[in-house]
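Proteins fold reproducibly. Look at a concrete instance:
___
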Amino acid sequence: MNNQTEPIDNAGEDRQTMVPAGDTHLPSTRVHEIMPPVEEEINLRDYLDVILRRRWVIILTLLVTFSLVAVFTFSSTPLFLAQGTLKASPRVASITSFKGIAQGMDESFMQSKEFIATQVKLLKNEGLLIKLIKKMDLQDNILFVGKKDNDTGHGILGGVKEAFASLKNMIRPRLDSDPANKMNRKVQENITLDNNLGKIKNSLTITPVRGTQLIKISFQSPHSGLAADIVNNLMKEFIQVNAEQKLAAFHSSGVFLDKQVNASKIKLEKSEQELNGYARRTGIISLNSKLNLVMGQLEAVNDALAQAVTARISKESLYLQTKKNGGENMPQVLNNPLLQNLKKQYSDLRSQYEVLSTVFKDQYPKVKKLKAQMKDLRNRYAQEQQLILDSIRLAYEEALEKEKRLTTKAEAQKKLAIELNSRATQYKILRREVATNREVYSSLLSRSKEIEASAGSDNGNIMIVSMARPPLYPYKPKVARNLLLGIVLGSFAGVGLAFVLEYLDDTIKNPDEFPQRYHIPVLGLIPFKDAGKTDDEFDEIALTFYNEPKAPLSEAIRTAMVAINLSTAATPPKTVLITSVLPDAGKSTLASNLSLSLLASSAKVLLIDTDLRKPGLHKIFGQKDNSIGLSSFLAGTADIDEVIMKTEFPNLFFIPSGPIPPSPAELLASSTMRAFIAAAAREYDYLILDAPPFHGFAEILILSNMVDGVILTTQLNRTPRDGVEYFRKAVTNVGGRILGTLVNKVPTGKTGSRYYGGYKYYKYYSYDYEYGRDA
């Protein structure tokens, strides 16, 4: 390449229209106005582009998630689930006619809706579980508690541990005699018991079968046999405890009645002895008719007294049981419609509270209101229950008072009868006492027999429907489900992360964003071409239009030149400034190729390297020495004829940047630069200025109002949106004119097929071109 100074001698030449080589007959695509912004529409292809661009993020997230799920699944201990079934139904009615307290409690409470729920709670009771632990010796079962700390193992380490264990056993008697050690052992036993209770509670599941009287009992354990044994023993222990409670209730009532029977029997025998002795002493055979009225009244009082005694004993028995066991399970409580209605209202409010408490805290107004209502219902329930208990107590006290009154009245009647005929009256009194005591004794004895018969005929209301069998296969982990879930979650997480990264990535993704967001026309899409690794390969791309005129990049340059030529309504732009937002956007390559495209129309072109910070045009045109150039001319150290270099391409001249000055902006803002551009515009047909990246530098703002228009070189997925907006505002504010943007390095593969469908377009028009081979 020969470089020489060339004078400015074409001031009189006519200005030629900027038309790229080979496109002189292309139809006009002039656009006079920028289209108004268009609302962005949802396009499924945009989502697909995001997935393709972020495919490695999705794949990596999927692999990580799947790996974590797989590691968790295969490292988890297999758990076996054993299940058994209980049936909890109301007790079968007793074969006797006695409706005792325990039987009444069964027939009312067991028929209620809360019966099954109560049995479920009782199955989880800690007392029952502690009995199960002790019965099965689970605290010493290695399958349940795992390997103990004192297991010595094998080998040398096991021998050492065994020696220490022997020493510990030797000194244990002395340690056991220490009260402090005994206390510590007690605390340790309680801690161990609490741990075992926690293990059972965490692995035990009690589930009522809806709409039936069945209760499912499940237990999961790493050992299938142990799981089945725990379920079966729990069901048996629960039935045994239930039977013991029923027998205790019958026994309590029986003991009380037995005492009353014995007392009544002694009283009857004593009254009979008194009657017989009095009759023998007085020789009474029949009563005087005069005493019929008085004795009739006395007989009525004694009848009422007998009934009062019987009623008092019955109510006393009920009252004593209330004091002993409380009133929650009393028939009067369970059969009270008001209490049942209050319990149902409380259950409904409790359900609402449990639903809301999972979402809101207790301070939430509605939750707070529910708690207040629940508290009010509990208070009302307690008040109504207490009223019933008070009524039982009052009934007993009234019966006792009535008995006392009748006793007093009977004594008074006795005195009146004695006044008439002490002997006859005394005899009748004694005889009536015998009858009364015999009636009371017979009634109490009958009730005692009925309780014995009820206890003996109790056939139980809890029964085992199906025993638990050791499961053959693990219940958890479910390998296939977990792995499938890992794939699904990994895919969703990967896609979600891809869209999050896409949202955070504030770069231009689509050429349509320029006219829609910034009112900047897209002048052309320049396909990507690998620049290689050496400077020579990079320089070849900058001269692609000359070296490979049929290449896709060359065709894109021709199309871009048509758009640039038609970008202004009056006359085509003559002086054009090419810049970019960020470095390495390919502006120098575009500047050199655009300059070469103008030579086909015999235009005289001057390419100026105004990048006084990091120049590169001199390398493209083979000039290794950049000691003289634009900065030299502006600084006054060289004449204009010395800085204009002639290239190997006819009619193409260029001015290198020259030495890098300390203050590029001041040189370019000088009146010399403005006068030079005006003079060069008269001498040459076209001036192409290769400017530095905008990047906040003042040179672009200085040069933009010295030229006809500015072209912004951009790159998809790299050029930031904020940078484009700042560039647009800055250039417009200083009076510069933005002709449009050239989107450089557009991919031509699958990810870029939306913009460049490979080379099918060029093959269709018989170009049949491949990079590196000129057809």
Observations:
- The chain has a mean pLDDT of 75.
- The domain at 513-764 is CATH 3.40.50.300 (Rossmann fold).
- The longest helix spans residues 365-456.
